[in-house]
Amino acid sequence: MNRITRRTFINTAATAACAAPWLRAETKPQPAAEPVKPVDAQGLGFPLVDFHVHLDNSTIEKVAELSAQRRVKFGIVEHAGTKENIYPTVLSNDEELGRYLAMLKGKPVFRGVQAEFIDWMGCFSPAALAKLDYVLGDAMTIRGPKGERIKLWEKGVEQRVDMSDKQAFMERFVDWHAEVMARTPLDIFANTTWLPAALMPDYDALWTEARAQKVIDAALKYGVALEISASYKLPRLPFLKQAKAAGVKFSLGSNGRYPKMGLIDHSIAMAKELGLKRSDMFTPAPDGKKAVQRRKLG
Ligand SMILES: [Zn+2]
What we know:
Elements: H1 6-16, E1 49-53, H2 60-70, E2 73-80, H3 94-104, E3 109-115, H4 126-129, E4 134-137, E5 141-143, E6 149-151, H5 157-160, H6 166-183, E7 188-189, H7 203-206, H8 209-222, E8 225-229, H9 237-246, E9 250-253, H10 265-274, H11 291-294
Parallel strand pairs: 1-2, 2-3, 3-4, 4-7, 7-8, 8-9
Antiparallel strand pairs: 5-6
Helix pairs in contact: 6-8, 8-9
């Protein structure tokens, strides 16, 4: 992937603004439905929270009911960023963010967003962002040669992104993880170590210790928690052990749409395997300490 200059990027981002109409809704791939059952939290020394819950096909009332049934607190994350990001809903300005926060007000959930790409901060005022409990983001949408955003999970992505040299792609992809964390104020990095379908069979070989360390170092440097994803069952254990040894904080997440939110058995199993304690877990920061407040950006 060619690099573009910061000025080119800023111009591109500014032109794209936060108002371009979106064309069709797309969501990240979802796991198959699983039966409803309460999760087994026995032996964990911290409260269960699924910090990666989408309301897309439901309502906060129905989702809150499910949260009570499953005895898992939910963190709701609507997509946020420019309208170039195609999702069923994308919050792109203070007014839209304000309506979203008002809709969740008084509900027994944390109020977050899933921030898209690296230009979302310009859509909102710092004061509006500071009302969120947290911001979650990932590296699944990368920057193409002309600065365009490319969703790595879409069909035919191999025609748009050269993955023929898997090692070269991995170098660029790992750098992208670090860049996303360096340039955007995230509290949680989600879907960590996820790979495009073409590379997934080689996951263990491609996520070398050195590449894992680059992502872990960025998480530590910028104070970002890494999600243990229940839907993708990622990162795998060697990465998680390396991250824990380095002192990274973790969050648990389903990336679930109704009724799959709160199904975090895999994340819990990993937390038990790693022996995670309350102090290892992400909790939303108090006012003044949120990533959008403590990071000096732009
Ligand atoms: Zn998501």
